[in-house]
Design brief:
alpha/beta, Nucleotidyltransferase, domain 5, 5-stranded mixed beta sheet, binds 5'-O-[(R)-(carboxyoxy)(hydroxy)phosphoryl]adenosine, binds zinc ion, iron
């Protein structure tokens, strides 16, 4: 059988996910199944992801999710070209569950194992959905990561900027929590901001004008907390105004950081083929608008994968597996799960 078919498994945070992706003869990817079970309900009453609960939920859920992904794809285990799992970075309990499951499948079905870096999977996702060539500039903003990365090839990543404190999604989540909005907070803050005045509070624009392309979000978060503490009682309009003002500060800072990142990219690698945004924060419509402006100013195209592929999923792991397999990059059974793993 000449088909290239890879099963991808994702368990690094609070999504239990599996997918089967095929590489077609023209090099493009086709998602045959993509099952994501978010553990939002399990963690909601704690206001954030509890690692131990996440790991146990992955144990309970993963077999069934893999089963569904295989059935829906119409592909048998024997047909698989490889099985790929996110081997980190992430919450180590969950990573162990996913990687160990992938090893078991690989052993039983005598299939190559591919241990994928979760961040690499986010970085390569746009090539699954469109014919994008290297090099391109990636803006990755999720609950755990905020990075600007030059993607110059499979396995070739140069970090141009990163957060020096909180991740961007984490800042949205913390602001939501301090304003008593439900978890996960990012979409709630965006919704509240829609009816708010972005100029009512003059929050700091972190790192504005700095020569490096790094981010900082904790000072801004603290500024929101201090302002909120001064208002008593906190009315819904105050919450909307706080969210709108916070989001405006994030947008302005992000636009500035990305324009520096694109400049650094240009100096080192020439013009990027695109600016690509990924991670949960890329689902934010206001941020999408800001990125559009940044890309236009840098005379490049903005590509944002569909929301379901921006947030954590198995298809991105399977696709990274396909890209690595094509380069002959397979792993051995002693591949280690990693809590921390830089690109
Ligand atoms: O990529 P993701 O699903 O999971 C990881 O963290 O790896 O990203 C989730 C993060 C959360 O912090 C969530 O609050 C944030 O992305 N997020 C948003 C929005 N939707 C999700 N942040 C701002 N605006 C949104 N619309
Ligand atoms: Zn992620």
């Amino acid at each position: 059988d000449v088909r290239t078919l890879v099963l991808g498994i994702e368990t690094t945070c609070d999504e239990t996910a599996a997918a089967v992706v095929e590489r077609l003869s023209d090099g493009s990817g086709k998602i045959l199944s993509n099952i994501v079970r978010s553990q939002t309900e399990e963690h909601a009453r704690f206001g954030g992801v509890v690692p131990e609960i996440a790991a146990r939920a992955h144990v309970d859920l993963l077999d069934g999710i893999v089963d569904s992904a295989m059935k829906e794809s119409g592909v048998s285990f024997a047909q698989l070209s490889a099985v790929a799992a996110a081997a980190g970075p992430g919450l180590i309990g969950g990573v162990i569950v996913g990687l160990t499951t992938a090893k078991a499948i690989a052993m039983v079905h005598d299939t190559p194992l591919i241990a994928v870096n979760h961040l690499e999977a986010h970085a390569l996702t746009p090539r699954l959905t469109c014919a994008l060539a290297f090099p391109y500039c990636l803006f990755l903003a999720s609950g755990g990561h905020t990075q600007i990365v030059a993607v110059t090839g499979v396995g070739k990543y140069v970090r141009l900027g990163t957060t020096v404190d909180d991740a961007m999604g984490e800042a949205f989540d913390k602001v939501a929590k301090m304003l008593a909005l439900p978890y996960p907070g990012g979409p709630e803050v965006e919704r509240a901001a829609q009816g708010g005045d972005p100029r009512r509070f003059a929050f700091p624009r972190p790192m504005l004008g700095r020569a490096d392309a790094n981010f900082s979000l904790s000072g801004l978060k603290t500024a929101v907390r201090n302002e909120a503490a001064r208002i008593d009682p906190l009315e819904p309009q105050d919450i909307s105004d706080l969210c709108a003002s916070f989001q405006a500060a994030v947008l302005e800072s992000t636009a500035d950081r990305l324009s520096v990142g694109l400049k650094l990219f240009h100096e080192q690698f020439g013009p990027p083929r695109a600016l690509v945004a990924a991670g949960g924060v890329a689902a934010n419509q206001a941020i999408r608008g800001a990125l559009q402006d940044v890309a236009a100013k840098a005379q490049t195209t903005l590509i944002i994968p569909p929301p379901a592929l921006c947030t954590d999923n198995g298809a991105m792991i399977a696709w990274a597996g396909i890209e690595r397999l094509a380069m002959g990059l397979v792993d051995t059974m002693d591949a280690a799960p990693r809590a921390r793993w830089l690109l």
